[in-house]
Write a structure and sequence with these properties.
The protein is built from 15 helices and 18 strands. By secondary structure, the chain is of the alpha+beta class. The chain has three domains: 3-91, 2-Layer Sandwich (Uridine Diphospho-n-acetylenolpyruvylglucosamine Reductase, domain 2), CATH 3.30.43.10; 98-216, Uridine Diphospho-n-acetylenolpyruvylglucosamine Reductase, domain 3, CATH 3.30.465; 220-409, Vanillyl-alcohol Oxidase, Chain A, domain 3, CATH 3.40.462. A hairpin with a 4-residue loop joins strand 17 (368-373) and strand 18 (378-385). Bound molecules: flavin-adenine dinucleotide. Flavin-adenine dinucleotide is lined by residues 31-32, 69-77, 80-81, 92, 112, 134-136, 140-141, 143-145, 147-148, 150-152, 201-202, 206-207, 328, 417-418, 454, 457.
Length: 462
């Protein structure tokens, strides 16, 4: 890219909002996915300040054929914010205004850089509730959540980000600004472009404003946990809860490897012999959650949970959740590298999937650790390895292929919430109907005919 083009972009962004310096480019080279190989350096970084400025930057880049990679907090786990096609990164994390929270409409309008937990706190301060709750809630942005259709801990009861997005303001790669959706619960006028943009991983348009549905804040919460000496019993426990008629807010699973890693890391007193742990939250009116908590505790104990703990205080609830929160960092104790997969299977196939994961680990001679959102059939599967050892690296790649084959054979999907990015590009064709893939490529061409917005993501090359 020649210097005149960089100057034109800087002028469009405002000189104070653009940097082509090496430190800045290095800072924006990667996301939380830590995908192998050299991190591709963007040619520059533009800091977004408002929609008209974003429009100007995109129009200039479009005119000069410069790729643009939108970026929120960079907490994505599949390489979505990496500049693999060159060009510049457009940093939206500075757009942090909550523009309004309307009690009568139960609607929030926010800029894309608002951190998810900030919106949750602002909604709860006025008695409302924003349910999507990715484990990255303290640093991921709403724009990134929308672009990835983030899920999280409460999806089992409340669904995912898509279920709360009513409308969007966005900018096309050629600089045109447009709105889709409404601020109403219902609307069936035209194709549902709002839903199309949710989960589009920054490949169709840059989202600059989000209108979100809020709901009344639940009055009370109850937390319980159950440890199991038998893996099948733990999986049956998930089924028992889901069939009980009580819908938990969260229903999380941790396997033995996760528990051992957490214990080695956080010393919480977890029994190392336990084969699995389930962790549940219930929310609603206090008398209802108290009754349902006791009911589920009885159910889990009858199914082999030993011990089952029902938190009596908010502090005890936090203690129960601390094992789950420590899981991510703890497993890095086991090996220097991991492939972090995000598989999802139909609920009835969860137990079979867990058994197959164990089998793949044994067959490939590699440690596979899984934990995650069992109530959605969504497991975070970590294939631990040392990438500097070619044999281990090869075994880890083979394990990923085996696992994906099992997921698809069981009627599942390769990603429940982390998206495709660059990490899963090679496998999209295995899951996707070829005609559907063709339609998606056509849609990409309608939104971005020159293929400049976040190239190299989501859709495999033709
Ligand atoms: C510890 C940890 C725990 C996590 N837990 C969960 C979890 O429980 N559930 C879950 O779903 N995810 C989880 N994630 C993944 C990640 O946090 C989510 O994908 C999140 O939605 C990414 O938000 P971000 O702001 O960091 O986006 P980025 O990583 O910056 O970007 C992600 C994608 O969105 C695009 N994008 C960002 N902003 C915009 C915009 N304004 N317009 C258009 N495109 C845009 C980017 O181009 C990129 O493709 C976790 C990550 C970590 C590190």
């Amino acid at each position: 890219m020649d210097l005149a083009v960089l100057d034109a972009i800087a002028q469009a962004a405002g000189a104070e909002n653009f940097s082509a310096g090496l430190p800045q480019r290095l800072l924006y080279a990667s996301d939380a996915g830590k995908i192998g190989g050299e991190a591709p350096l963007p040619r520059g970084v533009a800091r977004a300040v408002d929609t008209p400025q974003i429009s100007r930057v995109l129009a200039v880049c479009h005119c000069h054929g410069v790729p643009v990679v939108p970026r929120g907090a960079g907490s994505g786990l599949t390489g979505g914010a990496r500049a693999v096609g060159g060009g510049i990164v457009l940093d939206l994390a500075g757009l942090t205004r909550i523009l309004s929270i309307n009690l009568a409409d139960q609607v929030a309008v926010v800029e894309p850089g608002v951190v998810t937990s900030d919106l949750q706190a602002a909604a709860e301060a006025v008695g409302l509730f924003y349910p999507p709750d990715p484990a990255s809630v303290g640093f991921s942005t709403i724009g990134g959540n929308v672009a990835e259709n983030a899920g999280g801990l409460r999806a089992v009861k409340y669904g995912v980000t898509r279920d709360y997005v009513l409308g969007l303001k966005a900018v096309l790669m050629d600089g045109r600004v447009f709105r889709v959706g409404t601020r109403t619960i219902k609307s069936v006028v035209g194709y549902d472009l709002t839903r199309l943009l949710v989960g589009s991983e920054g490949t169709l348009a840059v989202i600059t404003e989000v209108t979100l549905r809020l709901i009344p804040k639940p009055e009370a919460k109850v937390t319980l946990s159950a440890l199991y000496a038998d893996l099948d019993q733990a999986c049956q426990g998930v089924q028992d809860v889901l069939k009980s008629g009580i819908v938990p807010t969260a229903l999380e699973f941790m396997d033995q490897g996760t528990l051992m890693a957490v214990e080695g890391f956080a010393h919480l007193g977890l029994p190392l012999a336990a084969r699995a742990m389930l962790l549940l939250d219930l929310d609603g009116p206090p008398e209802v959650v108290t009754r349902q908590g006791a009911q589920l505790a009885g159910l889990l104990a009858a199914g082999g949970g030993q011990p089952v703990r029902l938190a009596q205080t908010p502090r005890e609830a936090l203690e129960l959740w601390s094992a789950r929160r420590a899981a991510g960092p703890a497993i890095y104790q086991l090996a220097p590298n991991k492939f972090n997969e995000d598989i999802v299977v139909p609920l009835g196939q969860l137990a079979e999937m867990v058994r197959r994961l164990e089998r793949v680990g044994v067959e490939r001679g590699i440690k596979i650790i899984s934990f995650g959102h069992a109530g959605d059939g969504n497991l975070h599967v970590n294939i631990m390895h040392d990438a500097s050892d070619p044999a281990q690296l090869e075994a880890a790649h083979q394990a990923v292929s085996d696992i994906f084959a099992h997921v698809l054979a069981l009627g599942g999907s390769l990603s429940g919430e982390h998206g495709v990015g660059t990490a899963k590009l090679g496998y999209v064709g295995a899951e996707m109907d070829p005609v559907a893939l063709e339609l998606m490529r056509g849609l990409k061409k309608v939104f971005d005919p020159r293929g400049l917005l976040n190239p190299g993501k989501l859709l495999p090359p033709e």
